[in-house]
Structures are given as C-alpha cells and as structure tokens.
Amino acid sequence: MNLSLDPKLQKLIEERVKSGQYASVEDVVAAALLTLDQQERFGDFGPGELDELLAEGERSIREEGTLDGNEAFRLRQSRRSSKKNS
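Predicted structure:
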C-alpha cells in the first residue's frame, strides 16, 4: 500500500522515528491506527477532553482525598436505591 501524506504528517512521523520512539515509519502508522481504534471503541473524547478529566480527578483527590473501594461501592448502591425510590 502506498499513501500520500500531507507534509505536516510526514514530518510528525519522521520526528517519531528519529527520536527513537519507533523503529520505522510502519511502526508509527501502526501505533496511530491502534490508538484510533481504541479511541473509537472506548471513548470519543474531544481534543484535550481526556486530559481535562484526568486533571479534574487529580484535583478532586488532592482536595477531597480518596474513598476506600468498599465505601465507594456502598455509596453507589445508596445512590441507586435513592433514585429508584424517587
């Protein structure tokens, strides 16, 4: 398969190979396609949206701390019960 790519995309690929992150152009393209596949299957986040959500979660942990797994499960069950009774 032969592809024609925009010069900007070609430069990005070449930079990845030159950095040593990837052994070949094919490896860069394969990684990009696998990432796209995962994104389409597991979540359709807008540009920067996932980073914002992660930052929000980290802020919440710093400000409010974390919950024990069992406590989180009990809270979830309690909320579900409340919604059913409403």
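Summary: The first helix runs from residue 7 to 19.
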